[in-house]
Amino acid sequence: MTKRHLILHGLDSTAWLVGSLAAVGVALVLIVLLLRYERRLVPRNVGNTLLVFRLAVLAAVFLVLLQPTFVRELDRERTGRIIVALDLSESTETTDVHATNAEKLRWARALGMIGNPSIDARLDRWIGEYEAGREPDLVDDDETPDPERRRQLAEVRRENLDAIFAEIDRVPRREIARRLLTATPQPLLPELEKIASVDVSLFGGKSQSADPETLERLSAAPPAAILPDVSDLSQGLGAGGGAGGGAGAGAPVIGVVLLTDGRDNSGRDPVGAGRRLGLESAPVAPVVFGSRHRPRDISISAVDYPQTVFKDDKPVVKATLITAGFTGEPLEVVLEQTGPNASGDPPLTKTIVPDGPITQVEFELEADRLGRHEYVVRTDPRPDETRDDNNQKSLAINVVDDQASVLLIEGEARWEFRFIDNALSRDERAELDRVVFRQPYMGVLQDTFLPRRLALPADPADLHESPFAEADLVIVGDVAPEEFGDDGWRLLDKFVAEAGGTLVLVAGKQSLPLAHRSESLERLLPVTNLRPVNMAGFDQTGAPTERGFQLKLTPDGEREAMFQFDTSTEINREIWSSLPGHSWGLLGTAKPGATVYASAYRPGTEPSLEAERQYSVIVHQHYGFGQVLWLGIDSTWRWRHRVGDRYHHRFWGQLGRWAAENKAAAGNDFVKFGPERSDIEVGEDAVLRARWTQPFLIRNPRVKASVEVRRAGDASPRPFSTVELLPSEARPLVFEGRAVSLPPGEYTLTLVVENAPPGAGDLSTSLYVHERQTLELSDLSANPELLKQIADAASPTGSGRVFYPDEVAQIPALFRDPEAAVVLREETVLWDTWGVIALFFGLLTVEWVVRKLNGLP
Fold first, then answer.
1. 84 closest CA partner among 210, 264, 232
2. Three-class SS string for 400-469?
3. Gap between the Cα atoms of 659 and 627, Å rounded
4. What is the C-alpha separation between 692 and 670, in angstroms, rounded?
């Protein structure tokens, strides 16, 4: 149906209408006075003609003031769609032999293996008694009074139940879910299709669309593209963008049916994804399958280890085991070296006796041989385990013969300097030099304990003769301008931009950086608009963890090794949230090309991307070949509260190794090249970057670059893949590309330069892809509690519901009528068009011509 009407927007405002009428009234009075004057000069018919044209102009002006708009409305019907998301992560391969009889009876009933309307009440009673922990009476009181007949009937029913339970024990979770959709007496998919179009989605760590015809095949062998070794419920809720590719794509989502065991190990926020669906009035109906009881199972849930260590380090491998059902039983855990570089030494073995569902075991290694070394942490499967494919995890450690050369520069030995000095001095893999400009000196000794001067070369451009020449990392603290002047900053600029060094700037209360006026320092700083915040004396009466402001890591910060105090993302977040706050700091606005690693956070404030960049505290930026890290606090030493060196020393030690890795990238005088991270997991993208010098790009504006990716040891002339590097919008000197879907193994990356001389030097480096460390099979129990939170978040009333397999027939009633009327509104503005302008000036022109032809002024 189409409706057409005219709207006068000028009538919407009384003040506008009154003002318009007043203006037209004044104009009308003036026209009448002019007419009386002109009638004494021209004939009456000429005066009436002029009056007509003037009134027409006045009418056109009044019409414009009323703002007429022509509106056409078309009523159409739009059909909504329902997303049906099926969890195919590895945990759904589980067969729940350990499930209770009540759970098994529910699943058998849902699959049509038992039950009909005449015995549904009896099955309800059996399920209730099983859930209460009692063995049900299989014969109703009113069925037969004959005791022998009752006994025979009970035996037959018991045999029938035992056979059904045995069959259920052989059906994986995902097969139960698949049958609920397509292969029961009343399958769910056809019922949903009666009320809306249905999009079927399969998900693990990612999602992809499917259709009912291929559902059985894909559920039996999940595609690798969905990353089945990860459970990400947000993908099933449509947050990953993989759902919705079916016939109803583009129509509004009116609901989501989520078939899953409720496990999520992605580190994302599925409850937040449910909340967004709730804002769109799209409820979520989670169908939980799998037993909520944890099975008797041993699994290696996580392995914490350093990916790169220096020679003669003693790296510690910490394995976390899920030992549900094995409390008090001795278990043997083995760390065994594998791969081509295996030393042949006997494996390390430890015997543990779990005292709960989670147990940790540590192994100390000897990093005495250079190269990449592969290991496996494993336990031998027990005959009564639910699964035996989660009893081991692989890892790889790269041993390098190097030290991080660190130069620490300070104005005076403040607290921050002392603890940084202590942390790096005790690190065997850090070679530390210090300069402290202001030191107490009584003249007893020949000189101060530490150098008081920085030996800068006579030529400020001579980087090779400067104290920065051999450094990997330079840390500059609270130095005064008269102690560290512009010559020093210009040398640091060259150290970072040309030598590929790493500079860390640590904020100071007295001088750095607010007291300095160096253009080089301004360029090096990754932040602008620095503002001091001093919370000393304000709200400082509580415990250290409650004082001041805390640091909140951004997603970029969480990915950096120097900020990782635990391999688990969730545990690492808890550690950072429990660290003591800071009473003073310099908050800044991150520059456009900089990356914020941590921002200031006060409990009760709402985090946002804008707040992260406006109140940034730890910020990183690439600068030429090197990088700069800004620390807007002078109190990382506070992280030692009640834990000693655990986090403070780990942070500064990891920062030193991070700096050495940056300088070790392949390259020459024109370009530095390498992966963002030399070790990645299967499924991660390898980010490859080439950073050019500005003069080189000016001389070679048409330069092109690509990376040839080859498997280590592969003699084939053809690379495994080729990745094109493209200029980065945020960083014009950086070309970037991604190598995706690389299988596990070692790779050689070679930079290929076109339309420009590549320069001398080796432009090849290494990349290691290792098996994913996942928590997917660490806990095999279903998690209806999380699904209830998601359903509540998506419910308009905040009271969602979790459905069990035998309740799926009730799901279609949950969704609203999918037929939603849509009004397509088209507005044509009549008062602001060329036609109105032409009419206005046409009438004025005709009026002017008539006046001139009759001799009027």
1. 210
2. ECCCEEEEEEEEECCHHHHHHHHHHHCCCCEEEEEEEEECCCCCCCCCCCCCCCCCCCCCCCCHHHCCCC
3. 9
4. 6
pLDDT on residue 38: 77
147-168 and 101-110 are packed helices; what angle lies between their axes, rounded to 10 degrees? Answer: 80
Amino acid found at 595: T
Q: Kindly tell me the burial class for residue 727, based on how many C-beta atoms sit within 10 Å of its own C-beta (0-12, 13-18, 19 or more).
A: middle
Taking CA atoms, 227 is separated from 384, 544, 605, 742, in Å, by 28, 42, 35, 13
What is the separation of C-alpha 543 from the centre of its chain, rounded to a whole number of angstroms?
Answer: 32
Determine the residue type at 270.
P
Record the pTM. Answer: 0.52
Given a contact cutoff of 8 angstroms between Cβ atoms, the answer to whether 95 and 297 are in contact is no
Q: What is the pLDDT of residue 73?
A: 62
Output phi, psi for 435, to 5 deg: -135, 125
3-class SS letters over 583-635: CEEEEEEECCCCEEEEEEECCCCCCCHHHHHHCEEEEEEEECCEEEEEECCCC
Amino acid at 631: L
What are the tokens at 643? 């834990």
Q: Which pLDDT score is estimated for 78? A: 46
Query: Sheet of 734-739: strands edge to edge?
Result: 666-667, 671-675, 686-692, 734-739, 721-727, 704-711, 745-754, 764-770, 679-681
CB neighbour list of residue 792: distance below 8 Å, 6 or more residues apart? 274, 798, 799, 800
Is the distance from CB of 96 to CB of 295 less than 8 angstroms? yes
Q: Which residues contact 791 (CB under 8 A, 6 or more apart)?
A: 274, 283, 284, 285, 286, 800, 801, 802
Closest to 94 (Cα-Cα) out of 707, 733, 780, 604: 780
Q: Which pLDDT score is estimated for 518?
A: 94
Backbone angles phi, psi at 775, to 5 degrees: -95, 15
Which stretches of the chain drop beneath a pLDDT of 70?
Answer: 1-3, 71-79, 239-250, 401-402, 442-445, 536-542, 567-568, 602-607, 660-665, 729-732, 772-779, 816-828, 830-832
Nearest alpha-carbon partner for 787 in 257, 170, 387? 257
Do residues 766 and 678 touch, judged by C-beta distance below 8 A?
yes
Q: What is the pLDDT of residues 581-593, one digit of tens each?
A: 899 999 999 998 8
DSSP element (H, E) containing 560: none
For the stretch 596-599, contacts whose Cβ atoms lie closer than 8 Å and that sit 24 or more positions apart, written own/partner, are 596/554, 596/556, 596/557, 597/553, 597/554, 597/556, 597/557, 597/560, 597/563, 597/629, 598/551, 598/552, 598/553, 598/554, 598/557, 598/563, 599/551, 599/552, 599/554
Q: What is the pLDDT at residue 654? A: 84
Nearest to 348 by CA among 327, 359, 333: 333
Burial class (CB in 10 A: 0-12, 13-18, 19+), 168: buried
Residues 6+ positions from 91 with CB-CB distance below 8 Å: 173, 231, 261, 263, 290, 776, 777, 780
- H helices of 169-265, in order, are 173-182, 188-193, 215-220, 233-236
Instruction: Give Cα 752 distance to the centre of its chain.
Output: 32
Q: Which amino acid, residue 634?
A: D
Torsion of Cα atoms, 7 then 10 then 14 then 19, to 10°? -150
The strands making up 331-338's β-sheet, listed across from edge to edge, are 308-310, 392-400, 371-379, 331-338, 348-352
Q: Specify the pLDDT at position 167.
A: 92
